[in-house]
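Re: beginner question about structure tokens

> Can someone show what the tokenized structure looks like for a real chain? I only ever see the sequence side.

Sure, here's an example I had lying around. Input first:
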Amino acid sequence: MNTSINASANLLKEKNISPSIQRIRVLDYLQNSKNHPTVDNIYIDLVKEIPTLSKTTVYNILKLFTEKNIARTVRIGNNEARYDGNTSTHGHFKCDKCGNIYDFNVNTEELKFTGLDKFRINEYHIYLNGICEKCNTE
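And the corresponding structure tokens:
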């Protein structure tokens, strides 16, 4: 096994998830993918090497990963779910022209929320839409 696959298997074990080949490959795919793939993207790419893989299995794995906080669901604009293997605090920018989603850093120390003094915030997401640098220069 290569180093990336071993790291994925070890992370699953740390999260008390049985490291099946399907789970290992989906996690490895997410952690090495910067395009925030959909279930279809993951399925189409991995079924070539795991012919017994089904879309239902991919959905179930991603549901488990989000519950165990080793992946996040990203929804920007439309209702399409994309997935991110980077669970650190960061924002997402979706290009309205090409549809690509980009990560960007967020300084959470500088975020200010007003009008929520008596609320309890469990999580937050920073999503921006616009035109990416590449599309903006075309």
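Each token stands for a local structural state, so reading them left to right follows the chain. The radius of gyration is 17 Å.
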